[in-house]
Design brief:
The chain is α/β, with parallel strands linked by helices. It is built from 8 helices and 7 strands. It has a single domain, classed as Spore Coat Polysaccharide Biosynthesis Protein SpsA, Chain A, CATH 3.90.550. A 7-stranded mixed beta sheet has the order 3-2-1-4-6-5-7, sandwiched between helices. It starts with a strand and ends in an 8-residue tail after the last helix.
C-alpha cells in the first residue's frame, strides 16, 4: 500500500515559520503556516481520489504529541503518528520505520513524506514519486535552497538520515552522497521552492495568480488567503 505522509507542527505563534515571522510577525506567520498545512492536506486528499487502483494511507507525523486532538479535528480520515524526539533526521527515520511496521508485509509498500513548506506542490509530483519508487529504493525532491521537499522510500528506511547538516544548503548534497556510498538506487524529482521567507511568499502568490484557472480547490483557497494580505499584494 502507498503511504502519503506530511510532517506537521501545531500552528502556535512563535513555533512555526520563524524565519518568515521576522518580516510579518509571529501571529501572521502562524496563520500562513496553518493555511499551508490545510493546502498540504488538500493535496493528500486530491491524490487519494486519483488512486482508484492503488489505495493510499494518508498519514500525518505530528508534533507535539499533546496536540493529537487538534490534528484529529483538522484532518478527519488521516492516520496520526506522533513525531519522535531528536533532530529532523531522527524524526523522519522513526516516521518511516513506523509506517513500514504498520504496513502489510505481504505486499509492496511505498512511503512518501513531504513537509508543509510547499503548499502549491502539484499532485503530479506525488504521483511521479510513487511511480519512481516501483524501481528505486529512494526518491528525492530537491528544493532550491539546497534541502529537499520530498523523500520517499520503497523499503525499510535506508540509513541516510545520520551525519546530515540539517537546515543548511548542504542537506540534499549530503543525502545524495550517502545514497551513492551505500549503492542505493534512487531517482530525483524536479526542483521546487520552499516557502521560508517573505520573498518566497511573494513568489508563491505570483505562481498561484498565474495558474488561477488550473488550481485545485485547496490551492484556490490558499490563493484567496494570500490575496488578502497586503504584504504580498504588491508583487
Amino acid at each position: 500500500m502507498n503511504v502519503f505522509g506530511i510532517f506537521a507542527k501545531f500552528w502556535e505563534p512563535g513555533t512555526v515559520k520563524t524565519r518568515l515571522a521576522k518580516s510579518i510577525g509571529f501571529q501572521l506567520a502562524a496563520e500562513v503556516y496553518f493555511q499551508f498545512l490545510k493546502s498540504s492536506l488538500g493535496l493528500g486528499n486530491q491524490f487519494e481520489l486519483l488512486q482508484e487502483a492503488a489505495p493510499c494511507k494518508k498519514t500525518i507525523g505530528f508534533s507535539p504529541v499533546e496536540k493529537r486532538k487538534e490534528f484529529a479535528e483538522l484532518s478527519p480520515n488521516w492516520n496520526l503518528i506522533p513525531q519522535s524526539e531528536g533532530n529532523l533526521g531522527t524524526r523522519m527515520k522513526c516516521f518511516f520505520d513506523s509506517c513500514f511496521a504498520q504496513s502489510d508485509t505481504t505486499e509492496k509498500n511505498h512511503v512518501v513524506l513531504i513537509g508543509s513548506d510547499t503548499p502549491a506542490l502539484p499532485c503530479e509530483i506525488i504521483s511521479d514519486a510513487f511511480r519512481l519508487l516501483k524501481h528505486n529504493d529512494v526518491v528525492l525532491g530537491p528544493s532550491f535552497d539546497g534541502g529537499y521537499y520530498l523523500i520517499g522510500c520503497s523499503h525499510s528506511t535506508p540509513n541516510i538520515f545520520e551525519n546530515i547538516d540539517w537546515s543548511t544548503s548542504r542537506v540534499f548534497r549530503q543525502t545524495v552522497a550517502q545514497l551513492d556510498q551505500r549503492n542505493y538506487k534512487y531517482a530525483i524529482l524536479q526542483k521546487h521552492n520552499d516557502v521560508d521567507e517573505l520573498d518566497d511568499l511573494r513568489m508563491l502568490q505570483r505562481e498561484l495568480n498565474q495558474q488561477r484557472d488550473q488550481l485545485a480547490s485547496h490551492q484556490t483557497e490558499l490563493q484567496d488567503f494570500l490575496s488578502k494580505l497586503k504584504l504580498v499584494n504588491e508583487v
